[in-house]
Amino acid sequence: MIGPVMVKRVFQSAIVLFLLVTVLFFISRMSGDPVLMLTEGAIEPEEIDKLRAAYGFDRPIIVQFASFLLEIARGDFGESVRTFEPASEMVKSRVGISLRMVVPAFMTYIFLSIPIGCLAAVKRGAIGAFAMVISLVGQSVPSFFLGILYIYFFGVTLRWLPVFGSGSWEHYVLPIATLCGYPLAKYTRLVRAQVSETLTMEFVRTARAKGLHEVNVIRRHVLRNALLPVITTMGVDVGTLIGSALIVEAIFAWPGFGTLVVEAAKTRDYPIIQTAGLLIGFLVLTGSIVADFAYGLIDPRIRRSA
Amino acid sequence: MSEKTEKKEKTEDSFGASESVIIASQRSLGQKIWNHRMVLGFVRYPPAFIASIIAIFFLFFAMFGTFVVSWDPNKPVLSETLDPPAYSLAFNDVHMLGTDTVGRDVFMRILMGGRVSILLGITGATGALTIGVFLGLIAGWKRGVVGATIMRWADLQIALPLLLMALTVAAVFGPGLHILLILFSLWFWGPYARISEGLTLSLKNREFVEAARSIGCSPTRIVFRHVLPHLFSPLLVLWSFSCAILIIIEASLSFLGVGIPPPTASWGSMLAEGRQYLHRAYWLAMFPGLAISLMVWSINTLGDRLRDVIDQRQYL
């Protein structure tokens, strides 16, 4: 049955999340005195002790860790050292802006890579070769360079699309196209590899032998089997997607979650980074659990054997 | 059981490469590691040949650039700012790829920028390999609490990907080369540990391990002398792919402004600087970007080829 396996997976992920909290806490204490780190030394010596007591940094580290855990359990993630707003509020308000770019991009590359990969596997020859060359190039061009290429050709030279700002649908085209680049290439390759492997299976020969139309053979017999690993990879790739969204936001000055994180890293606003890190960890772990669950739902073999 | 482990590897793989890596390794167990026909077969494939030349070119300048180039690539020449790319037979007198905002030669800076990127990629990947293989061997051999603990730490690296971890660390320590190097080794050993653990688990019950045990070999000797050599080929392939990933991550960090601090040339920071001059001087952003893409393409092509050759070796 699928139940016990999922319980085990959730339990393991909870342990990993706890490790993440621990690591994030201790990194902030590793650079020595947190007060000096937050104020960057621009502070009077007598003020340091006051601040230390105010933040509770004078207590033993284990006590600090325990109270940190308690605060997180209560939903208190500290406040930004720059703006003094609660970190959770700041992160929350930015995530929505990022999703406006990430969700369409996700949809685009999923709905494009499956037909293209399929076509490349079925129609060998020119189309297949072309798709593979494009995807090999796409996998080698980092997203920040792809974004700059788009800006240069569509924004600066041809002047077709705006490169900064937001408002109309046109502002979404370049960021989404940039974010799609790498995953589109990767999934096209993956789908093609899976489909061409499945095409050699004996049940495909059987399906053809009983007179099924080739479209039906692909749709009902090949794709169902070939797409299983694609789903798992998607779940694992949540982290990669967040990472590249971060860079794409930096290129197009998109005021989302990624920009917040990069700004926080540059201004050394640790509470924001910590909250963001926890959110990312949570999303990645949830993504891989959901993918596992979906895998079990789709593939009856896993459901029974596990 | 086998289906379960297979699924586990697929789920927890963050490279997309390791699936076939594992297949490749299972086929190549117990075979001779290198022979001349393999090397010949390796370069006979034209893309792999081109990729080797590109990789060797960049690597050469990364390692010996300071001996070959007589002037300082970071020194400004204010009379020659924003010169466009020029071509001449006397290539010592012209700037082939133009100059930047303070008159530094872009071509030289690309060669020197590769130094940081490539060496950081190679050393980072090697450090991660050492840690990951060691921990993976232990986890696969011991299992139990020790194994589970090691593998949860490996999972942690997927939960907070390296790029984001690097931003976190930059928020605490500020940007710096040695911080990145340590971080790359400490936060990138997961994939190596996962492959070593999986293969050690499957090798543990093989006859040759039993034979070694029966003649009285210590566990340490069995692990390092009998199990480890079998991991060589899949680890080599993974190592090449992770060099490419680390080069991209370093460039991304420098692009975001939290990687290698200026004035040291780095592909990522050159690209970030060039982005602001796209309308006036395209060469500032295009050529560094092209350099990163070429290098990453070369490494990926070489890694792919390596995997194919290792895969094919049984037919040779």
Which bin fits the share of residues in helices of chain B? over 70%
Q: What is the rounded Rg of chain B?
A: 22 Å
- Please state the structural category of chain A: mainly alpha
Sequence of secondary-structure elements of chain B: HHHHHHHHHHHHHH
Q: Which overall shape of chain A is indicated by the principal axes computed on the Cα atoms?
A: flat
Percent strand of chain A equals: under 5%
Account of the 3D structure:
The complex is a heterodimer of chains A (306) and B (316). Chain A is an all-alpha fold. Chain A has helices at residues 2-30, 34-39, 45-55, 61-73, 87-122, 126-140, 143-157, 170-198, 202-209, 214-226, 228-236, 238-252, 257-266, 270-298, 300-305. The longest helix of chain A is centred in the middle third of the chain and has 36 residues, at 87-122. Chain A is flat. The mean pLDDT of chain A is 81. Chain B has one domain (30-315): MetI-like (MetI-like fold, Orthogonal Bundle). Chain B is 71% helix and 0% strand. Chain B is built from 14 helices and no strands. Residues 1-20 and 22-31 of chain B have low confidence and may be disordered. Chains A and B meet through helix 1, helix 6, helix 7, helix 11 and helix 12 of A and helix 1, helix 6, helix 7, helix 12 and helix 13 of B.
Short description:
The complex is a heterodimer of chains A (306) and B (316). Chain A is an all-alpha fold.
